[in-house]
Amino acid sequence: MSQRQQYELDVLNPATEEVIATVPGAVEADADTAVRRAARAQERWAALAPGERARLLRRFAVTVDEHQEELARLEVREAGHTVGNARWEAGNVRDLLDYAAGGVERLTGRQIPVTGGLDVTLLEPLGVVGVIAPWNFPMPIAAWGTAPALAAGNAVVLKPAETTPLTALRLAELALEAGLPEHLFQVLPGRGDIAGEALVKHAGVAKIVFTGSTRVGKRIMALCADQVKRVTLELGGKSPNLVFADADIEAAAAAAPMSFLDNSGQDCCARTRILVQRTVYDRFLELLTPAVESVTVGDPADEKTDMGPLISRAQLERVRSYVDADAPGIRGKAPEGPGFWFPPTVLTGVDPHARVAAEEVFGPVAVVLPFDDETDAVRLANDTEYGLSGSIWTRDVGRALRVSQAVKAGNLSVNSHSSVRYWTPFGGFKQSGIGRELGPDALTAFTETKNVFISTEGPAQ
Ligand code: NAD
Asked: Which GO terms describe its molecular function (predicted)?
């Protein structure tokens, strides 16, 4: 398709396959207009007093909170997320804005001792930031980049995924309603190869924050290199869930299903490689089987549903390509009929280098692999090109610390599967990404450090 040709995006409800909206897709000229407008808005925004910027961001947070249910219902319809998850996601946007607002007046440089003068560092905004978001957590991931970027004095142009532009468009309306300046936060719905690439290549964009597949991330990093453009990449994962024989096996088995089934497995942190010490392997599977079978898959708008559909037919076909119908393992139930449904699936007896054990499936599919001892467990856990997250189940504190240090991943949890909090850093090792988001340093990632030396010697005579 030519860069100028107009096109539209059909937004489908993945639980029913009905078209719920049609959105005009942006082309290169739209990206150019958005970036130019953003650049003008950014200058005015950065010139505001920090307290004023913080106050406007807090008002944006309050406005999001007032529309939490509406945003959640929109997320259920366009992304098939369970309503409980969708409410959490809208609340996460509110919290991200609030947390970032608290950082505006605290974004301080340093004073460094020197002779003959005073040396200070200034943390200056970058300018216009391009945020490219995926469809798996459309609202939170859009806000991970947007909230701290705005707080640090930048303007944002957000390119949502093709399948999930609606919550992003609504957030931009709410920003205006809250009093944020026009064009400071714009949404550019469109195809990745058209609108996304136009944003990446635009000389007026100082930084790209990309979350998505490793394949596209590599292309974006290469395109950014051309202009030495700043880039943060949050990419794929194939995270291990290590269960040692000394763990609370009941608790580990009870927690394992939702660690890879939440959001139908369309989660970059999904613990899809369940590694279990051989001596408790049979017992663990015995407990895991009813836990997987009891997961309720169905209408995501129903409060009792644990897992909804996959996002699209393409994703369904992709997930199917990893699972042979007669492969041994555990299968849950999924609805028949319209919608992109796939049952919870755990495969056993799989070679650790088989496609399903090595590649990111991005669906409700995990493998269980046995290991012999701690060394073997760490070797298996690290035997992947990814390094995003992982879990360690053990009652031995020394082992928990040793294994946490040995596993090469950015986000680990012990006796838990939690990995994402807006106030702790998040990001990947190896091919899971580069840079960190969230946490206390989130705003700094959207600044340039400038060093200024002021001589106390007076002008040279
Ligand atoms: P994707 O890479 O296909 O698309 C992500 C975004 O990039 C979309 O907005 C898309 O339109 C855009 N895009 C596609 N091609 C582009 C191009 N050439 N130039 C610019 N933009 C382009 O990924 P997806 O299918 O939307 O999301 C699923 C992937 O995201 C999974 O692999 C998952 O692991 C990853 N993910 C990672 C994290 C993380 O934090 N590490 C979080 C969520 C999802």
From this structure: oxidoreductase activity
